[in-house]
Amino acid sequence: MTDMTGKARLIERNGVLGPTIERPIPQPRAGELLLKIHATSLNFHDLVGIDGGIRGLPVPRVPCSDASATVLTVGDGITKFAVGDAVIPNFFLNWKSGPVARDVMSPVLGDQVDGALQTHLCLKAASVVRAPAGLNHDEIATLGCAALTAWRSVVVEAQVQPGQTVVLQGTGGVSLAALAFAKMLGARVILTSSSDEKLARAKQLGADVLINYRATPDWPAAVMAATGGEGAHLVVEVGGGETLAHAIKATRLGGHISVIGVLSGYQAASFPLAMVMSKNLTVRGITVGSAANLDAMCRAIELNGYRPVIDQVFDLDHAHEAVAAMKQQKHFGKIVIRIA
Ligand SMILES: NC(=O)c1ccc[n+]([C@@H]2O[C@H](COP(=O)([O-])OP(=O)(O)OC[C@H]3O[C@@H](n4cnc5c(N)ncnc54)[C@H](OP(=O)(O)O)[C@@H]3O)[C@@H](O)[C@H]2O)c1
User: Fold this and answer.
1) Does 292 map to a domain?
2) How far apart are CA 235 and CA 164, in angstroms?
3) Quick check: is 295 in a domain?
4) Is the CB–ligand 1 distance for residue 153 below 6 Å?
């Protein structure tokens, strides 16, 4: 590799991640930063994108939205960042702050534009925030999508209070970040998993009540039993089709459900409409968050000493193995790909 070329892996066609190739390093225009990418982490969204499950995306393209990066070159007109600053790009490159709006939903890094599975990337300064101090690059690379989604659910939308109860499903990236944020706020966490071994690890991370959703398919009854018959203030719903009805049953009067994931499918097996109404539930769809949300989360992480849970680390040349490992769903926390 010469000084003028970087490395990248591209989706060559749907379902096929090509080998590592050399590419010219781009130069930043006015208002842009040239970033050196140190690491990315995989999200379910990346897997769907690589497999061609998101309509209308360009191919070939570089996938992945999460990144830990440092600033290599500062374009004209930027005063907020300097060479050497550690930064994180926001998932939605144009969503600076405020409520969701049509014009902030695109582009997504790694979808409509080349993403973070490469050594160098130019982005607008407004699309990145300062990374939290005290974390290494692997850890920083886990924050942009899964952790920000968890933050927006627990802190921004549901506004969980000390002593309230939060239900988390499984032990993937979203749920373990939500566990950390719920505990920061002094909440009680009920966590479900398919694995007793993973439940034991979640207990070490602070989960208060543990339910194996395979051994206890009626886990809403277990949530009711653990909350004196009241139910949870918030269910962070990542299961999708098979779990939404259960989430509605497990939530208390006036509670929140954050509809985030579709791990068991996009179609709800049933939707207890009368229960949503009679319990006065807020059922809130969430897609990641704004750069302002990301910045607030990073500052809170700095102050609270949160260290993300990393399951495995791969290098760029083995990124396809990282994708295969994520598909196996044996992981606990995040799968990271080191770029440089
Ligand atoms: N809306 C958004 O903005 C947004 C952002 C990030 C992620 N998501 C979505 O949220 C979901 C989770 O993402 P992630 O990154 O945390 O995924 P992940 O790291 O792959 O975690 C998946 C975990 O969820 C658990 N799980 C799988 N099927 C389940 C089911 N039927 N019921 C309950 N738990 C189940 C499993 O935990 P155990 O092995 O412990 O059972 C699995 O390890 C995905 O659908 C993803 O697309 C959405």
Assistant:
1) no
2) 11
3) no
4) no
